[in-house]
Amino acid sequence: MQSVCVFCGSSKGKNPKFVEAAKLLGRYLAELNIKLIYGGGKIGLMGVLADSCMANGGHVIGVIPKFLSGKEIAHEGVTELIAVDSMHQRKLKMSELAEGFIALPGGYGTLEEFMEILTWVQLSLVTKPVGILNVDGFYDHLIHQFKTMAEQQLLKRSNLDFFVQADNVKDLLKQFEDLSIRLVKIRDKFIDT
């Protein structure tokens, strides 16, 4: 894997483990020579992640809508900063550049980006691995909600296999290869039906 898109908060949150996880993820991606694709901000967990990756010799591509860039939150210190016209173009560009996706803790925007890419996987529009870095149980309730959706038959139980989750980045990335293979098989089956 040569590039990973990370969705995460534009604030740091109150749990110091979120900042530590962002720092570790940035460093680990740099050490593995995996390009970081992210939302282009210099604030919050986004800034921590990008700064850590850059400080460890990594390659960072930020994708930011022009209206946010104008509010002086764009991270001008990254390897490449791409300005787009809308949030929709941002998500599309990030999905084109990335070979996988990780959700760190975040708010509405993080959740929306994660859910959209997960929906694209469900529809076989994307066959790239998606993972949740479940720092200190932050996403436990969301994962439980997904299981509730399946139990209530609003989501196919097999759709729970469209993402992986771990509480540390090394375990998460180890699961990405197997998930990539499964998603291609699912896509091929989806196309054949």
Descriptive overview:
38% of the residues are buried. Helix content is 51%, strand content 16%. The chain is globular. Strand 6, helix 6 and strand 7 form a beta-alpha-beta unit. The protein starts with a strand and ends with a helix. Strands 4-3-2-1-5-6-7 form a seven-stranded parallel β-sheet, with helices on both faces. The chain has 193 residues and is of the alpha/beta class. It has a single domain, classed as Rossmann fold, CATH 3.40.50.450. It contains seven helices and seven strands, in the order E-H-E-H-E-H-E-H-E-H-E-H-E-H. Helix 1 (16-31) runs parallel beside helix 2 (44-55).
Low-confidence stretches: none
- Total count of domains: 1
Residue share in helices?
40-55%
Biggest sheet descriptor: 7 strands, parallel
- CATH topology assignment: Rossmann fold
CATH architecture: 3-Layer(aba) Sandwich
Strand order of the largest sheet: 4-3-2-1-5-6-7
Overall pLDDT? 91
How large is the radius of gyration? 16 Å
Gap between N and C termini: 29 Å
Number of strands: 7
Q: Which structural category do the helix and sheet elements fall into? A: alpha/beta
- What is the class in the CATH system? Alpha Beta
What's the overall geometry? Answer: globular
Question: How much strand content do the residues show?
Answer: 15-25%
- Compressed to H and E, one letter per element, the order equals EHEHEHEHEHEHEH
Count of helical segments?
A: 7
Q: What are its keywords?
A:
single chain, 193 residues, alpha/beta, Rossmann fold, seven-stranded parallel sheet, 7 strands, 16% strand
